[in-house]
Amino acid sequence: MGYRLLADGVAGIHYAYLAYLVGGGFVAWRWPRTIALHGLAAAWGVTVVAAHWPCPLTAAQNALRSRGGQPRLSDTFINSYIRGTFYPAAHDAEAQAVVAGVVLVSWVGYARLVRLRRRSLSRA
């Protein structure tokens, strides 16, 4: 039972990471110091997708599922839980483009806010 709960917790962390990947740039509008963390999260996401690297969270979830008597995921976390649920399974490239677009918009907005804040501080 405990390993199953831990596996579910890792899945929750995975979901939280993906939510932060999409929305973390907007979080930085309110808390500017978080932009570096979001940059790292975005770089990791791009690297994993582009290089087809296995995600360590998926490996951890599978290990915990095995110890808890559950079957391992038959595919990646994205393919098991996200693809076909949050976007149509045949539209991976489009979904990735939308995520990249949202991140880009958040970073452009962040840069504008930083510029406006600096401008207002220099006038004060």
Beta-strand residue percentage: under 5%
Backbone structural class:
mainly alpha
Strand segment count: 0
Q: Compute the CA-based radius of gyration.
A: 18 Å
What's the overall average pLDDT, rounded?
95
Q: Roughly how many Å apart are the termini? A: 59 Å
Q: How many helix segments?
A: 5
Could you walk me through the main structural features you see in this protein, from its secondary elements to its overall organization?
Helix 1 (2-30) crosses helix 2 (35-51) and helix 1 (2-30) crosses helix 5. By secondary structure, this protein is mainly α. It is built from five helices and no strands. The longest helix has 32 residues, at 92-123. The relative contact order is 0.15. It has helices at residues 2-30, 35-51, 56-67, 77-82, 92-123.
List the helices and strands and how they pair.
Blueprint: H1 2-30, H2 35-51, H3 56-67, H4 77-82, H5 92-123
Relevant terms:
124 residues; mainly alpha; 77% helix; 0% strand
Question: What is the compact description of this entry?
Answer:
The chain has 124 residues and is mainly α. It contains five helices and no strands.
